[in-house]
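Moderator note: this is an archived Q&A kept for reference. The question asked for a predicted structure of one protein chain; the sequence and the answer are reproduced below.
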Amino acid sequence: MYPILKKEMLADRIFLMEVEAPLVAESCLPGQFVIVRTDEESERIPLTICDYDAKKGTITLVVQMIGASTEKMQRLNAGDAFHDFVGPLGNPSDLCKEENLEEVKKKKIVFVAGGLGTAPVYCQVKWLHEHGVKVDVIMGSKNKNLLFFVDEMNAVSENHVCTDDGSFGFHGMGTDCLQDLYDKGATFDHCVAIGPMIMMKFVCKLTQKLGIHTVVSMNPVMVDGTGMCGACRLIVDHQVKFACVDGPEFDGHK
């Protein structure tokens, strides 16, 4: 069993859980994910790691209630426990590997986080900040009430917050904000987009026009998480890949 040490509601139907899982915490890196089961009758849910603390032996997850299994998970509180907590799975972000650090420091990097994608983006940006890499982040949300981690992201990046309805920050979508930064003279040579599929698609269309190399996270298409079910099959540069074992991050323009 994997005890839940902390539970917090972040926004409408979005909650955070800090889970005691020392073996996962000591070996994971940003970009990887875990598979959890609430109890032995529950389905297996892949969730990207939002934060981790190897010394405390904890993993932080941010979850959005979108179906029966995540609603069941939301009913758990601090003091309860997950039946299964498997990971780290998938491959870490190429930006968050110490052997790549000197090359990463030469890049002008922008992250585009849509909705729940803010959580895995925060994990990467925090790691980069701790290793002396400065990045820009565009946080996009439908409205102010769905925003979370604004202060946390401000602390580790040059953060640009935007909302579709203009209720907070820049009025427009993440692509609008990126175009606005570009029009004002900002230049980037590497973009990481994490969020809903349609958002990542249009970020890739824009960055292809602007000539910015772009990486996307294909976590949204994962089901099994171990390469056995084949549901997350992708064609990347004319080759068959699986999001869970070959990714979850891929060249968005391919």
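Archived answer notes: The radius of gyration is 18 Å.
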